[in-house]
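Q: Structure tokens for this one, please.
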Amino acid sequence: MIRINLLPFRAARKKENVRRQISIFFLSVFLLAVAMLYYNSILADQQADLEKSVASIQTEIKTYDKDNREIAVLKKKLATLEKKTTVIEDLTLSREEAVRLLDVMTRVVVDKRMWLTSFRASGTGINLSGTALDNKTIADFMTRLEDSPRFTSVRLKSSQQQKVKGLNLKKFDISCSLVTLAKLKKQEADKKAKLKQKKKA
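A: Here is the predicted structure, written as tokens:
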């Protein structure tokens, strides 16, 4: 009977399997290292791109900050100019107010039948004192004040008889409210706007 010793073959096969497993292990480690290096390279590129983007954004922010500061300065200058313009407009209206008010007063006074002796203005409140020939003249004067768009809340405070050079005259005190020129202009503008809306409708 022939006997074959298989032990050396088995040992060689076993060594071959070990070698193969070691080769596979080292190949896997090598491939993993290559993959990690590649991924790390991609991450490094992405980080570089992000850093560039951040730097670009920071530059833009600095530019916008500069623009915002310039805008803030311009807004302050504009606010100052608007205040100055408002003051100038108020002064112009005040001058015009006095002239217009005197013009209106000359038109509402009943000519040759009454005389104003006092004219006091405090804000929009006005107190008028004067002398008239009779009560009808005072009534006519008050009617003219009420008909004028410049006066509201016309009220007779007092009326009493007074002798002047032998004549029986009427001394009176009247209070009323002044419609400012600015308010009057606004009312006129509102009326025009309403008329335009009616025409469009």
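A few notes: The beta strands are 114-122, 125-132, 151-164, 167-178. Residues 53-186 form a domain with the Gyrase A; domain 2 fold (CATH 3.30.1360.100).
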